[in-house]
Amino acid sequence: MERYGISVNIDHVPALDPEFIPIFKFNEAFLKDAKKPISIAVERADGQMAACHTFIHGTPDMADADHYYVNRLVKTILWMKGGFKIYVSDQDVYDYLNRTFCAGGEQEFDWDYFANIFERPFEIVCTDQVPEALDAPKAIGGHLDGCRIGFDAGGSDRKVSAVIDGETVFSEEVVWFPKINSDPDYHYDGIVSALKSAAEHMPRVDSVGVSSAGIFINNRTMNASLFLKVPKDLYDAKVKDIYIRAVHDTFGDIPYAVVNDGDVSALAGTMSLKSNNVLGMAMGTSEAAGYVDAEGRITGWLNELAFVPVDAAATAMRDEWSGDIGCGVKYFSQDGVIKLAPRAGITLDESLSPAEKLKVVQKLMEEGDARAAQVYDSIGVYLGHTLAYYFDLYGFRYVLLLGRVMSGKGGDLLLESCKKVLAEEYPEVAKAIELALPDEQFRRVGQSMAAASLPAIQ
Q1: How much of the chain is in helix, strand and coil states, percent to nearest 5?
Q2: At what angle do helices 23-32 and 63-81 cross, to 10 degrees?
Q3: What's the pLDDT score for residue 444?
Q4: DSSP 8-state class, residue 62
Q5: Going by C-beta distance under 8 Å and a sequence separation of 6 or more, which residues neighbour residue 215?
Q6: Distance (Å) of CA 415 to CA 217, 351, 386
């Protein structure tokens, strides 16, 4: 396979997507002849930096390849770690990024998105003194002392647990409809109702931990699909601090923490595995991810792997939300199943919801349908190549695989195909990592109990 003059060799190709080019394989092939050093850094909140020292070709005939490589690298850093200011040491790359990450540019979505969530103008700086990496991971979670509340805000239901000294004494799951409500008071009232419900089952409340889909900076809700319909003026006024207000208004000045649900899933995984350095990856409506480092800390990175590029093919599928192609959301979610099913000869009724379409393919898989098996086998090949890339980015020890795409016989075949790709194309990675599925201990710990363990009680 070839892309921008870069020849990429792949042994395992998805049967239903023969044009798939793993981004990791493309990068390896690109770097074989790239000799010109370049440094890139991305500034995040509180002066933290993500930094990368790499190479490009730096010749006119390879400019397109250089630009594509840098584009995908910068996008990966932005969605993995977050940031609003890019530092780069090469003038040509600086010029390219300036006309790409801007209003009207190819990456306008990213430019606008990160300016909004960090509440800072998105900037690109050319400098010989590119800052070095600086992280500030937080030792958070795993605390079981005292009387705690854990709240898990989902798109279709909300869960809350009351936990006393590590034992769940009450849990409740309530259906709600946050994504279709434009009044933020609906969300606020639902959160407060859950907190009060749990509080009734304890003598006092020492702390509150919140697990929620979205991007949170200093406990503030900078972006979250739960509040999709809330107008921007009301979002700024009532949503950004919604969890902080709910805790303070209900319990006063007590410890609290608001963390992305992917990171809380990874934390629950560490509690279940009794080990750290865990990447949690859930394949459901989208691709959700979280990471707990080798010291058991949450990094504060975004870990939005749904929008990290995984496919370098020019024909890669486009994501409707960001407008970009080749990103994880179209490979490791129900969208991935829906994308591949017609290629396998499975006709899906367009009147069905995405979740219902997934169930159709799952039912066929349970019945032993060879077409459905091709779908899951192809996703397993995607996953094997992509986990090698994620390992290069994170250096994790464990991968906890979650989500309804992983359920049933389809999930078993997917996992088998993934392991085969890792063993045969990336043997060193296969030896270094362990793939894990949720066990009874994980289910017992649960998302809301893991959320309850987030704050430390002083």
Answers
A1: 45, 20, 35
A2: 130
A3: 53
A4: G
A5: 82, 117, 221, 222, 223, 224, 260, 302, 304
A6: 34, 30, 13
The closest of 425, 24, 399 to 8, measured between CA atoms, is 24
Tokens read off for 329 = 């959301």
At a CB cut-off of 8 Å and minimum separation 6, what does 408 contact? Answer: 362, 365, 366
pLDDT score of 449: 83
DSSP 275-335: ---EEEEEESSSEEEEEE-TTS-B------GGGSB-B--TTPPBPTTT--BSBGGGTSSHH
pLDDT the model gives residue 136: 85
Q: How far is CA 346 from the centre of its chain?
A: 29
Per DSSP, 105 falls in state S
- Count of CA atoms in the C-beta half-sphere (13 A) of 203: 3
**What stretches of 316-450 adopt beta strand conformation (E)?**
398-402, 434-436
Nearest CA-CA partner of 243 in 454, 457, 456, 458: 454
Sorted by sequence, the CB contacts under 8 Å of residue 385 that are 6+ apart come out as: 10, 12, 20, 22, 24, 25, 310, 421, 425
CA separation, residue 41 to residues 103, 155, 179, 207, 340 (Å):
21, 34, 35, 37, 37
The DSSP letter of residue 265 is H
From CA 339, how far away is CA 321, in angstroms rounded?
Answer: 16
The pLDDT, as a whole number, for residue 442 is 67
165: amino acid identity, one letter: D
- What confidence score (pLDDT) does residue 445 get? 54
- Residues 194, 176 contacting (CB under 8 angstroms): no
Q: What is the pLDDT of residue 437?
A: 86
**Lookup: tokens for 263:** 């990171």
CB 69, CB 32: distance < 8 Å: no
418 vs 421: CA distance, rounded Å: 5
Residue type, 145: D
Q: Which amino acid is it at 169?
A: V
Could you give the CA distance from residue 232 to residue 357 in angstroms, rounded to a whole number? 33
Q: Are 311 and 357 in contact (CB under 8 A)?
A: no
Would you mind telling me the total number of residues written for the chain in this entry? 458
**Residues lower than pLDDT 70 in the chain:** 440-445
Beta strands 207-212 and 256-260 are parallel
